[in-house]
Amino acid sequence: MKKVHQWYVVMVVCLAFVLPTCSEKPQSEASAWISLFNGENLDGWTPKFAGHELGENYLNTFRVEDSLLKVVYDDYEKFDNKFGHIFYKEKFSKYKLRCEYRFVGEQVAEGPSWAFRNNGLMLHCQDPKTMAVEQNFPVCIEVQLLGGNGVDERTTGNLCTPGTNVLLNGQLELQHCINSTSQTYHGDQWVTCEVEVSGGDSITHYINGEAVLSYEKPQYDERDADAKKLITNGNLIISGGYIALQAESHPTEFRKIEILPLD
Q1: Residue pLDDT, tens place only, 7-48
Q2: What pLDDT, in 10s, does the model give residues 46-56?
Q3: Distance between alpha carbon 105 and the CA centroid of its chain, in Å?
Q4: What's this model's pTM, rounded to 2 decimal places?
Q5: Structure-derived torsion over alpha carbons of residues 86, 88, 89, 93, reported in degrees to the nearest 10
Q6: What's the CATH number for 34-261?
Q7: What are the residue ranges spanned by the domains of the chain?
Q8: How many angstroms separate the CA atoms of 78 and 110, rounded?
Q9: Which of 42, 118, 182, 193 is at a distance of 20 to 30 A from 157, taking alpha carbons?
């Protein structure tokens, strides 16, 4: 009995040291996430609309209401190709980014059919200061966010490549948009999108916790006029840049936008 008692004491002491160590990692990671949106205003974010100077929030499209960052079109008569983006103030290279989003209401009049319930997380964006006034989209890697129409299948967490290319399964992919393997999310439900970005190496998309698309070597497309201006010394690989959200004609709401910088 004495040996059993001693063994029990040793086990209790060991567990007292091991269990806190096991719980430290998830706790520290959770505390390391940084909110990019304060829930009160657009501090830290700068809008850019096609045909307008950087900083002009055309018709108050981007706004904060009810602690949500919203893309709103109630002051528009028609869309008129006013593609918009709102950029966070800092550049990032290696990180995890996650947001919760949903599509609401009706698409603004004369919005393109492909932009129905369509938004995006724009990663590795060019500096918005370098965008031409009439430029519709920044050169970047787009994590395309789509909502269903209530009937048809329509994946989200897709990839689009304005002015860029990637390697998919080891091969250079020149197609502009590539579908993920996600489910379709109809209606106004909230969806969580997370992206893990390893600089100029690999990028993986997650929807509601499931990996749905992965690719490598984000790079400038030499065929694109806007991208050509950004290429220096022949280096095509994009290892970092700004983060932006879109305004493509359908009302969208974001209630959480967080980043976890990675070493």
Answers
A1: 444 443 444 444 444 444 454 666 799 999 999 999 999 999
A2: 999 999 999 99
A3: 22
A4: 0.88
A5: -130
A6: 2.60.120.560
A7: 1-32, 34-261
A8: 6
A9: 42
